[in-house]
Amino acid sequence: MLGRVNHIAIAVPDLAAAVALYRDTLGAIVSPPQVLPEHGVTVVFIELPNTKIELLEPLDAASPIAAFLAKNPSGGMHHICYEVADIMAARDRLLSTGARLLGDGTPKTGAHGKPVLFLHPKDFLGTLIELEQI
Ligand code: CO
Predict the structure, then answer these.
(1) Domain region containing 52
(2) Can 132 be counted among the known catalytic residues?
(3) pLDDT tens across 60-105, in order?
(4) Interval between CA 6 and ligand 1 midpoint (Å)
């Protein structure tokens, strides 16, 4: 069911400082910021030869990323995103095993304009997993 790692996401308290760190200190190519109100974040992508890193900054205090940063004030790894060919087939398979999805189980549109789902970290080794249909 799982394909490539599409991206690894890091929650950050200060996106401009995080962009400068990746661009200037680490010498990476960083995309322009994108505001995603449906997900409560502003996001940039760092393009690497084999995958992407997603830097997430909360839009406001109601953002799920704000809650994460309250527990991890200097930032931290937030989720890993795997590619799937058919997100509805993946969802049905997961639900049939009793795995929990975040939200109502309806795919949302992710940062790349593709459908995404999030899987409950308590069912996946303490790791938040995003599935993105490619
Ligand atoms: Co993501």
Answers:
(1) 5-133
(2) no
(3) 999 989 999 999 999 999 999 999 999 999 999 999 999 999 999 8
(4) 8
Full-model pTM: 0.92
Residue 89 and residue 71 in contact, taking contact as beta carbons nearer than 8 Å: no
Other beta carbons within 10 Å of 6:
21
Using the mean position of ligand 1's atoms as its centre, give its distance from the Cα of residue 75 in Å.
Answer: 15
Find the CATH number of the domain harbouring 72: 3.10.180.10
Q: What is the pLDDT of residues 36-50, one digit of tens each?
A: 998 899 999 999 999
Dump the DSSP string for 34-97: EEEGGGTEEEEEEE-SS-EEEEEEESSTTSHHHHHHHHSTT-EEEEEEEEES-HHHHHHHHHHT
93-97 contacts at long range (C-beta below 8 A, 24 or more positions apart): 93/1, 94/119
> 80 CA distance to ligand 1 centroid (A)?
7
